[in-house]
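Archive entry. Fields below.
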Amino acid sequence: MALLQSPHWPLLIDVYFFLGGLAGGAFVIATVANLLDARRYRDVVRTGYYLTLAALAPCPVILIVDLGVPARFINMLLNFNPLSPMSMGAWALLAFSACAGFAALFTFLEDIGRARDLSGPKLVAGVIGGFFGFFLAAYPGVLLGVTTRPLWTNSHVLGALFLAVGASTGAAAMALILLATSRRTGEGVAGLRVMTVLSLLIQILSVVLFVGLVSMSGSAASVSALSQLTSGRFALLFWGGAVVIGSVLPLAIGLVDLKRRSIGLTAIASVLVIVGGFLVKYVIMAAGQA
Amino acid sequence: MARTVAMFTDTSLCIGCRACQVACKQWNELGLEAPEWTGSYQNHAHFTDQTFRLVRFVEEPKTNGDLAWLLMSDVCKHCADAGCLNVCPTGAIYRTDFGTVNINQDVCNGCRYCVAACPFGVVTFNDDTGTAKKCTFCNDRLHNGLGPACAKACPTESIQFGFREELVVRAQKRVETLKGLGFKDAQLYGADSRGFLGGLNAFFLLLSKPSTYGLPDHPKVPQKNLFVDSLVSIGSALLVGVGALVAFRRRGGGED
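PREDICTED_STRUCTURE:
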């Protein structure tokens, strides 16, 4: 009889992991675009920074309402525990929110014509925030690894996987918004197509490593938990949803689209990436807590 | 700093009377729960937010086809290197001067990370208080010069309370005695402070290998993963960063 207990983190936590990852990914992409050519990628940068703020806005609320005693959320910020990914994540969320707020504010000041060119200050907020953005995208995976849950504790790549999902979903969401809102989408969307494909490659590699490392971990409990994912009750969602529809199919479409440069294909691939990115996190959370 | 105290649970003396479980409930004012059918006399299957001491009734198949009953009164191990304490983001989980591990109910905000980080499935979540719950080693009794209620109530001295180093010596002698009597698998679990988790402040004498009781043979603190998992994440971040540089490098023309 296995002794371990499940934390039973609710679906909203999956939503937070998804939004935090997407925000971190979008922010880093916008920052790199701003770094390489602020003028040419102006639309990418403003889309990325606005999207980051929008995705980030519900995150603190989600985290607070899911606590057993929501009013005591502040206790997380009265303590600093480097051994606890959750503690570090709370601080990273705070620091990232500040950077994302400044980046969006500078973008907004440019947009309403109160400032001509704030790409310099944006770069400062972007580079500092980029570090915390990466942190926010990756730490939930490390948090799951630093538990005794059999599916998570022997995988070692969940942080890497979650970060890659953050980058792919961030790029895909930016591409969708650019396609829907901007008339001149050319270079920006082209860059996002490449970014989506590269992130998907890292994402798929991480999933392969995840399955491989857990199955070779030598722990009967971990192998049994993995079988729930690969051949048990989560198999359809994992293989069909997270892997095929959410990762491999959009990668195939994306590769074709690199040459084809079709708005329709980009839109389809982007929607699949976003749905798939959520499913990757959802199914790992669900199977790991079952 | 007070000397480290411990509980030594000698399962060879346990008769499964559950006086410890009842005494724990009484002293700590833990509420009623609906009983559950576990296939044996054991109730409940796992620790709950109302059950901090739990007598496990384990049936071990013998070579002749019969079943041998292994009884074990289980409890929070108060690990010297405690996963729950390590992951707590609020500092609610703390180590007392006695070396025991406690949850400050006025600080815990119910994030449930400790529930997922315990190697033994000890910590549970209470929906009414919204906080994490587990054995307190009867912290209030300890501060008044008394041992835990479970040890006090045990009629066979299967649960013994005392200073850790004295109990370990006593436990080692007891293992030798039992081996001499023919219990060849008799062994201590968590007594060695150089062993797993830095030793358990509630350690056990088992009559079979730990996994027979559902205990992990080599429990590990989840923080063992922190370095490697973080390193792999940094690798992934570098790849994504390089990917973004490649994706947005300057290139000529190309409109949709």
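CURATOR_NOTE: The domain at 11-289 of chain A is CATH 1.20.1630.10 (Formate dehydrogenase/DMSO reductase fold).
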